[in-house]
Write a structure and sequence with these properties.
This protein has one helix and eight strands; from the N terminus they run H-E-E-E-E-E-E-E-E. By secondary structure, the chain is mainly β. It has an eight-stranded antiparallel β-barrel with strand order 1-2-3-4-5-6-7-8. The longest helix is centred in the N-terminal third of the chain and has 15 residues. The termini are far apart.
């Protein structure tokens, strides 16, 4: 019996130290901001995470105009891959990672539909 208990404890210990389960971000809402390559604030946004899908809206200053954008991305583990877009003005990739369940950060590129101007920078978001 003593040997059985020892084996069961060893199994439980191994299971508890295996790194846990799949990463699950908080649902949100997350509040965040866009920052230019020069470190200037160029917009704000919010998003939620439901079933590994990140969805939100915000405003980004692109080429001197404040443009309302939609944020959509897939979450694979802690990795975020998606886009920031406005059907009239432009679109571009949005990428990043979750540092923990309530904070994420990454980068983006927004290119105008005419392809003339591109806004590139970073973003970060957290649950307030």
């Amino acid at each position: 019996m003593k040997q059985f208990i020892t084996i069961m404890l060893a199994i439980l210990l191994c299971c508890g130290c295996s790194g846990g389960g799949e990463f699950v971000a908080e649902t949100g809402p997350f509040n965040g901001g866009f920052t230019s390559e020069n470190g200037e604030s160029i917009g704000a946004f919010s998003f939620t995470v439901i079933n590994n899908v990140l969805q939100g809206t915000g405003v980004i200053n692109h080429n001197g105009d404040n443009i309302t954008v939609t944020i959509s991305a897939a979450l694979s583990g802690k990795v975020i891959n998606g886009q920031v877009s406005n059907s009239t003005f432009g679109t571009g990739p949005l990428w990043g990672t979750f540092d923990n369940v309530s904070y994420a950060e990454g980068g983006f590129t927004f290119t105008g539909n005419a392809g003339v101007a591109t806004t590139t920078g970073t973003w970060s978001a957290a649950i307030p």
